[in-house]
């Protein structure tokens, strides 16, 4: 009766305990009566033997067979189902009309719907795979129990309600102890003198303890009011703040006191804290902006450096070409006269290639004429 797993429910307006037949059979097969002892045979050897034994208990009205009746859905759900059915019928009619209008559009729509379904299934799989996502709770259908016409024990998922409900040993023992305590209290005048003196001192001590707690509760309130009135409501001092709180016995004496200051300085401190937080946020935003600007400046400098490197290469190539042209002009106009060399600094100062060439040719032509004169 107490080892078989049971559940409780209401049946015909009464609270009852019921069990499932297969679990009862398993319970008896795992019990000590299914094991053979010395010189004795086991009472339960197969499931059929257990079923026969349970049939005998059923005939003796230890339990009876019940029938599960599933509860029907309310009218709102039926109305919703009807509305859904009407919508489905209207949708089918529209589909038929669209099929008549054109088959190509239907094929395209079907392909799009298939793609959407595939995408939705992939997203659902991803959501299920991600850890921490709460799973949907399985909805259990409600049922009620009714007495069955055929009272037979069958090994399966059949439901049986317990009729045999004995008083548990623990409840019996507790009730017996309470009865003995009441009788002993009524016989207090017959107790020995030492026991009566001990009980008297214990009762006085308990009464003093309760009275001291009540006095402390009143005294702490008076102390709070005095401090609050003297300071004008600025200081809130509580002695034993958890004395009357809903906590344990030891926690009711912790902490010893609490103190709060609720004056103008406290408001100023709160404002200063809020301002400091705002300044920190503003500084962090400025730092982020300055870092962004530095990054942008670094990028622009890098682009400029790359441009200057390219222009320097072009200038070096220009100087090399100018040197070659100077050498050729010197060899062509060589009449034994000395010509002055053009320095690198003068070539770098000149920017236009065409102007540089014309000036150099004029210098080479004019200088030998002056030397001759």
From TrEMBL:
Region: Disordered, residue numbers: 74-142, 264-373
Q: Which InterPro entries match?
A: Sec62
Q: Which GO terms describe its cellular component?
A: endoplasmic reticulum membrane
Provide the transmembrane region boundaries.
172-193, 199-230
Query: Where is the protein found, in the record's own terms?
Result: Endoplasmic reticulum membrane
Q: May I ask which residue range the UniProt record assigns to the signal sequence?
A: none
**GO BP:** post-translational protein targeting to membrane, translocation
Q: Which organism is it from?
A: Falco tinnunculus
Q: Which domain of life is it from?
A: Eukaryota
Return the similarity comment. Answer: Belongs to the SEC62 family.
* Membrane topology, as annotated: Multi-pass membrane protein
Protein name, UniProt field: Translocation protein SEC62
Where is this chain compositionally biased, Acidic residues type?
Answer: 348-364
Its keywords, alphabetically, are:
Endoplasmic reticulum, Membrane, Protein transport, Translocation, Transmembrane, Transmembrane helix, Transport
Q: Where is the composition biased (Basic and acidic residues)?
A: 74-130, 264-302, 312-330
Stored Pfam families = Sec62 (PF03839)
């Amino acid at each position: 009766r107490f080892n078989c797993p049971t559940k409780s429910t209401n049946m015909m307006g009464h609270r009852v305990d019921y069990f499932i037949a297969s679990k009862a059979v398993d319970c008896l097969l795992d019990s000590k009566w299914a094991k053979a002892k010395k010189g004795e045979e086991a009472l339960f050897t197969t499931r059929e033997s257990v079923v026969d034994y349970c049939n005998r208990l059923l005939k003796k009205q230890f339990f009876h067979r019940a029938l599960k009746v599933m509860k029907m859905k309310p009218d709102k759900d039926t109305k919703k189902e009807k509305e859904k059915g009407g919508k489905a019928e209207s949708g089918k009619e529209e589909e038929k009309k669209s099929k008549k209008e054109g088959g190509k559009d239907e094929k395209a729509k079907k392909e799009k719907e298939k793609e959407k379904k595939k995408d939705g299934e992939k997203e659902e799989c991803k959501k299920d795979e991600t850890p921490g996502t709460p799973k949907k709770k399985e909805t259990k259908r409600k049922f009620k129990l009714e007495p069955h016409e055929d009272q037979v024990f069958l090994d399966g998922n059949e439901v049986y309600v317990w009729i045999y409900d004995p008083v548990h040993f623990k409840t019996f023992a507790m009730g017996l102890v309470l009865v003995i305590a009441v009788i002993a209290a009524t016989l207090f005048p017959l107790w020995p003198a030492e026991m009566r003196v001990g009980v008297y001192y214990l009762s006085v001590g308990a009464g003093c303890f309760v009275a001291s707690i009540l006095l402390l509760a009143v005294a702490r309130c008076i102390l709070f009011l005095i401090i609050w009135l003297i300071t004008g409501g600025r200081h809130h001092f509580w002695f034993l703040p958890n004395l009357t709180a809903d906590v344990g016995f030891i926690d009711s004496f912790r902490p010893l006191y609490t103190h709060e200051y609720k004056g103008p300085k406290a408001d100023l401190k709160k404002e200063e804290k809020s301002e400091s937080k705002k300044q920190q946020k503003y500084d962090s935003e400025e730092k982020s902006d300055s870092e962004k600007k530095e990054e942008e400046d670094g990028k622009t400098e890098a682009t400029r450096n790359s441009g200057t490197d390219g222009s320097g290469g072009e200038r070096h190539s220009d100087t090399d070409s100018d040197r070659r042209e100077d050498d050729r002009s010197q060899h062509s106009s060589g009449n034994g006269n000395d010509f002055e060399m053009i320095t690198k600094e003068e070539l770098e100062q000149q920017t236009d290639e065409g102007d540089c060439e014309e000036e150099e040719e004029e210098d080479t032509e004019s200088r030998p004429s002056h030397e001759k004169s």
